[in-house]
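Quarterly update from the structural biology core.
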Amino acid sequence: MAAGKEVREPLWVDGQFTVRVRGPGPEPGRVVRVRRPFALIGQIPGADIRIDDPAVDGRHALLLLDRRGIFGVDLLTKTGTRFAGAASASAWLGAGDILEVAGRRVELLQLRVDGAPIDPPLSSDDPLADAHASGLAELTLEPLDFPGPPWMLGSALAFVGRGEACAIRIENASASRTHCALLRGHSTAYVIDLLGRRTLVNERAVEGASALLDGDILTIGQARFGVRIEAPSLPSRPTDLPGLDAMESALPSVLARFADVPSGPAGMSMELALGPRETMLAMLLGAVESGRDSSKFEVLDVLRQFQSDTATLLEAQIERIETLNREIASLRDEVRGRLGPIEPPAPPLRLDLVSPTHPSGEPSDESATWLLDRLNTLETESRSTWKDLLGRIASTVTPRPAPNPPGQSLAPTRSGTPTDGQS
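Predicted structure, tokenized:
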């Protein structure tokens, strides 16, 4: 027994749930309230939801409650279990869902966690799948009475017994076919007794479920195991992820751009000088460099912060654009004042797309040439109009340059070479 660790931690969640069991034919329905976060359905005496029917196995199904809802597992029974209308080995269930056992309908009426009803969306997690990297406590069982390698759990939920489907098999008749379940939590692990013949922790019978502590002795039937529990290790730096080298190589340039950004107007962030991808890169790399736990929740926090900062920057950028628009309007008014009244614009040109035709009405061979000529004419007229307008602005707004010294003309020719006066 581990010294100084007599006090057992509470279970993985403080929860309870209520079900209604309806039988076939005239059998009346009954409401069962389960005052703990798990329930055994079966024919065996002492089952939380007992169904006295030869078609129901002694240990038929296990229900586990946490904040994600209820996870139901069929214990490899002869008649099987239907979860929410589908025959499967396991499934997540919520309030209002129904599971069927040998013609009986077990309806989940209400789920409660920490004293409050919950109705979360159905989870896609699979507690029976491998979960080495999920941030759960590491649980290892070391055989004490027979030779063999230690058992290290890879999934969040595993079953122990002499049945072939159990993750940890007890090779003697002292254990039931499905004797108990092991559940890994984020800080410790738990053993859930399924009314097996003998389930002890430190020579004390497990009543329902119990937390496991490092150094405990777990007895299942006549087999004893030493319990080793380690806190979830922080994930190592994922140097093998594709693109990480490129991210690390980009970090100096990103930080340099932060350092080179000049101080702008009040209320303007330096991050305006960075693109969105570079800003997110700096934030994510900052989280990695800080050595914090890079779990999916940490990444979500970074993304939420990035979204908030992006919204703030977008508002500042929009305000800046509006300021520029007001300044352009002011400059336009000033130019109009210097140019004098502007003649009303000529009516828009109307492009007649009807090309010359033969007397028969069919397009002639000159249609394409005519259209190109017409487009060239419109482009020439447009350039002439802009040239005239820019010339008027230049003659009115641009100050006249000082005369050049004799023999030194700086006016470029069309080819960009100096004039004769400069050669």
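The mean pLDDT is 75.
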